[in-house]
Amino acid sequence: MSKPNNTPDKHTDYYAHGESMRSYFRSLLYANGRSTKGKVHVRDAIDVKRTMTIVGLCLLPAILIGVYNLGLQAQLALASGLTTPDVWQLLAFNAVTGGLTEQSGLLSRFAYGLSFYVPIYLTALSVSLFWEVVFAKVRRQELHEGFFVTALLFTLIIPVSTPLWIVALGITFGVIMAKEVFGGMGYNFLNPALAGYAFIYFAYPTQVAQLSQFVAVDGFAGATTLTQVAAGKLSFVDQSWYQAFSDPLWWDALFGFTVGTIAETSTLAILLGGLMLILTRLADWRIVVGVMLGMVLTAVMFNLIGSDKNEMFAMPWTWHLVTGGFALGMMFMATDPVTTAYTRQGKFFYGLMIGFMTVLIRVLNLKMPEGIMLAILFANLWAPLFDYVVARSNMKRRLKRNAA
Prior knowledge:
Layout (H helix, E strand, L loop, with lengths): L9 H20 L18 H32 L11 H7 L8 H34 L6 H11 L7 H15 L13 H12 L1 H4 L16 H6 L17 H8 L6 H4 L1 H13 L5 H21 L11 H6 L3 H8 L10 H21 L7 H32 L1
Helix pairs in contact: 2-4, 2-5, 2-12, 4-5, 4-6, 5-7, 6-7, 7-17, 12-15, 13-16, 16-17
C-alpha cells in the first residue's frame, strides 16, 4: 500500500531541518540564502548584515581604547599597593608575561584588559546566538545578525568584573523579554542591551553597581567622576563650562584614561564613531542634536538654580558630556532605528527627552548618578506618542490647508 502524499517523511524532515540550520549559520558569514531575481528589482547595498558590521566598526576605536584603559587602571591601582586577582582569566596572561607590574608596557596593558573582556563578550555572544537560533527555528524565520551588536553593546556598559553567569542572565533577559516576546528584530520597543543591563543592575546591585567591579584588581575602592561629584568630593561651584578645557581630569575623561566601563571612558572615540554613523545615515542627526541640546539646556538650568547641598547642580554641561555613558548613549543607544521615533520632528523631541531625563536623574538621584540608561528606556516608551502627535499635527495642517 502506497504512502499518502501528505504523510510526513521523517528523512525529509530531518534533512530539511539540517539544511535550515546550515542556512542560518551560512547567512551569518557571507550572504542570505534568498536573493532577488530579475532585472526589474533593485536591491539596496545596505542590509542587516552590512548595517551591523558598520556599527561594530564604528565601535571599534572605543573598544580598543577601553580595553587598554582596563590594563592602565589596573596598573595604576598596583602602584597604590593593590594586587591583581587570582582568577582563571589571567592564567594565559601570567604564563606569557609573568603578570602585570608597574613597569609593564602598552601591549601588556592591552593584553591584561583583553583577558577580562574577551570571556565576557564570548559569553554574551554565545548566549544571544543561542536564543536567536531558538526563536528563529520556532518562528521558521531567517536568522538576523542584530545579536552581534546587541551582545557587543551589552558588554561595553557592564563592569569588567561582572560574573559570567550574570552576563548570561542579563543578555538572556534583554534578548527574550525586550525583543523576542514582541516578535523579534524590528518589533521591539525597548533597547535589548539596555533592558538587560537594567535588569541585572537592579537585581544584582552588589555584583554590578559596586565601584570595586570597575577595575580588575583586588580591593579597588576608587570612584568614577560622577560618584565623586555625587559624594561631594569634586566641586564645580563658580566654574564656567569652558573652564573644563583647562582641567587635566577633563582631558583624561575625553581621551578615555579614567575609571569606568569599557565604553564609558573614551568620549572622543565614541564621538568619532558616532560621527561615522551619522555620515553613513545609520544614525539620525536629529536624535543626536536633540539629546545634546536637552542635556545642555537642563545642565545650564540646574547651574542657574544652584544648591548648597548638592554639587551636581553646579556640574557644567562639558562635564556631563565626558562622564558616565552619556556619549555612548547619545551616539549608539538613542539612535537605535527600531526603538526610536520615526517622524523627523518626533526624533528631535525624542532626543530632547533623553538629554533632559539624563541630567534630571543625575542631579536629583544621588544614589544613581548615571542616568542615561533609564532616560533612554523611558524615552523608548514615549517614542510612539511623539510620532502620533506629529502625525496628527501634520494631518490637521493639511486639512486646514485643503479646506482653505
